[in-house]
Design brief:
single chain, alpha/beta, three-stranded parallel sheet
Length: 143
């Protein structure tokens, strides 16, 4: 093999379509823009969501709901996930290393989904009322 003989695999490269370069190209004359109208003109276009002067959809529909941008810092962990983790002492760093919560998480709460049989000591982690009862029943504690 020589350096001057290297070429890309068949189909890996294709030529960019040259629009408006004569009748023989197949994309001459109107160059894929159709006939007349605002969209056929140079520089003639409109803003996103424009509906020809009609009240656009995003203004016709009522404003509804709210999603806090702080939610990305919250995370939930189930009792079943704690059971599988199998650690005696659990804190935020342990959960991040195990991949149970995201790297951005600052506030973690244990929820009662599944069963817990092992005693687990939680530090710096919250729990729902039902999860707290389940953790203490298994011999664990929250700090």
């Amino acid at each position: 093999m020589e350096l001057n003989g290297i070429k890309p695999a068949d189909g890996a490269k294709h030529y960019k379509r040259r629009v408006g370069r004569g009748i023989g190209s197949g994309i001459g004359k109107t160059a894929g823009r159709g006939h007349k109208g605002q969209k056929s003109r140079a520089g003639g276009y409109h803003k996103v969501g424009f509906e020809g002067g009609q009240m656009p959809m995003h203004r016709r529909l009522p404003k509804r709901g709210f999603k806090s941008h702080l939610l990305k810092f919250n995370a939930e962990v189930t009792l079943a996930a704690l059971e599988q983790l199998g650690a005696a002492e659990v804190d935020l760093v342990t959960l991040k290393q195990a991949g149970l919560v995201g790297e951005l998480a600052k506030v973690v709460k244990i929820i009662k989904t599944g069963e817990l049989t092992k005693a687990v000591k939680l530090t710096g982690i919250g729990a729902t009322a039902a999860a707290k009862v389940a953790i203490e029943a298994a011999g664990g504690s929250l700090a």
